[in-house]
Amino acid sequence: MRDGLKLDKLTICKGADTLVSVDTCVAPGEVVSIMGPSGAGKSTLLAAIIGTLAEDFTLHGRVLLGGRDVTREPPEGRRIGILFQDDLLFPHLSVAANLAFGLRPGADRKRLVEEALAEVGLEGFGPRDPATLSGGQKARVALMRMLLSEPEALLLDEPFSRLDADRRAQMRTLVFGRARERGLPVLLVTHDAEDAQAAGGRIIRIG
Ligand SMILES: Nc1ncnc2c1ncn2[C@@H]1O[C@H](COP(=O)(O)OP(=O)(O)OP(=O)(O)O)[C@@H](O)[C@H]1O
Description:
Helix content: 25-40%
Largest sheet: 5 strands, parallel
Keywords: ATP-binding, Nucleotide-binding, Transport
Pfam families: ABC_tran
Number of domains: 1
Oligomer: single chain
GO molecular function: ATP binding; ATP hydrolysis activity
Order of helices and strands: EEEHEEEHHHEHEHE
InterPro entries: AAA+_ATPase, ABC_SmlMolc_Importer, ABC_transporter-like_ATP-bd, P-loop_NTPase
Bound molecules: adenosine-5'-triphosphate
Shape: globular
Mean pLDDT: 92
Protein name: ATP-binding cassette domain-containing protein
Number of helices: 6
Low-confidence stretches: none
């Protein structure tokens, strides 16, 4: 994607108060960290970008994805992947069915699911019930599910914070590497200076 993710004077207000105002462009393959105190509006900013902002807020400015204005598009029309700290897998679906959930129609489901599992060291886990996975394993499946949906940008809301140091480093390498390979712009909300440093790029401080 050539133009990346542009937040054009994107401003979120609650009544007369401005909660967050950001004016920036995240280039394809670039990871920009968002840091700020609790309650500063980091998660609310991500909600505005994916189109799920609560009605208590008003939004000004624009979100442009690959040069396309998506500000008023419904969330499913935006093709933005998001990963949360406590991302839940669908409990009634197997690991493989969770991974296949976001695949485009006509995709080679079996091959893509197997490749995704192999990529995160979970070969043979396809038939498993997600409840039988560790936290780190669930996080890897959630990450691959997001990537398989072929998003045009990634938003990560503290996705590594429940993982131990080794897993955290592995997940960062995987997700940042994928983003670079595919030229995806990434916004990473984190409280952790190490995450921001590993992202190697700019930090936007809010609040
Ligand atoms: N649906 C909502 N309706 C009204 N106010 C909300 C809503 N969601 C969040 N808020 C308020 O908006 C502010 C920003 O919340 P947000 O969750 O974006 O902060 P944050 O920076 O992500 O915090 P944390 O680091 O603790 O996750 C807070 O004051 C919060 O109480």
